[in-house]
Every structure is written in structure tokens, then in C-alpha cells.
Amino acid sequence: MSSPNVPAARPGTSGPGRHRADTAPDDRGSLSIADTAVEKISAAVLDEIDEIGGAARRVLGLPMGSDHAEQRPRVTATVSGGSVSLDARVSVSYPAPVAATADRARRHLAVRVAASTGMQVTHVDITVTALTTPARPTHRRELA
């Protein structure tokens, strides 16, 4: 029994009020992901690696601030169609091996960004701007 105010569902649809695909998939349009969205995804992906930290913003090659492990890495993404090229500026926590850490970050970034965005990652540059040391706990000496 159907209500006179609610249209009946067509076969193959979920019912009234649901999205219906009346056009062929090739005719529906496309989805584009902005460079800045890929940059934020990439920075979050690099945060998953313990030895990787943030890099200070630089003007004319000079750091504006300091490199900290607690900051997010800086990533620039260039999206072209269904592919993306990434350039990341990071710091590495001492005593982690710099080259091995950068290689691991490069592989991890390519795999995770491709999985998250559906884009092919064509190029990943990792620039290590600084080595950071873990924060030292402050030791207080009590006088008796």
C-alpha cells in the first residue's frame, strides 16, 4: 500500500529521497581535489612517522622560527589531472639515520596519499631542514 503523497520507488533504487543515478557514470562529471587538500593530507601522513617533525617556514632561505618535532611538516603539492607531485620539508629526530628515515617517509607518503586521494603519486621530494633533539626533561635538584 502506498501513500498518495509519497512517490513509489523505482526498481533498483532505495526509495523516495535517495540519490538516483539517472545518468551514465561517464556523463556524471568529475571530482577534483585541490592542491591544498593534498598538502594537508600529506602533512598528516608524515605525522604518522615518529622520527619526522616539522620545518620552520623559510624566507629567502632563512628560517622564520625554529624546526620542532611537534610541528607539522611543510608539504607543497602540485596536482595535475589524476596525478600529484609532492615536495616535503621536514626535520628528523636525532639520532635517527637521516637517509633511511627520508626514504621511509618517501615510500610511506606515496602509498598513503595514493590510497587516500585515489591519485597517482608521480614524484616525492623530501628535504631535511634540521636535526632535532628530544626535549630534555628539566632536572630539579632539591636542597636538603
Automatic annotation (TrEMBL):
<dbReference type="Pfam" id="PF03780">
    <property type="entry name" value="Asp23"/>
</dbReference>
<dbReference type="InterPro" id="IPR005531">
    <property type="entry name" value="Asp23"/>
</dbReference>
<comment type="similarity">
    <text>Belongs to the asp23 family.</text>
</comment>
<feature type="compositionally biased region" description="Basic and acidic residues">
    <location>
        <begin position="19"/>
        <end position="29"/>
    </location>
</feature>
<protein>
    <submittedName>
        <fullName>Putative alkaline shock family protein YloU</fullName>
    </submittedName>
</protein>
<feature type="region of interest" description="Disordered">
    <location>
        <begin position="1"/>
        <end position="31"/>
    </location>
</feature>
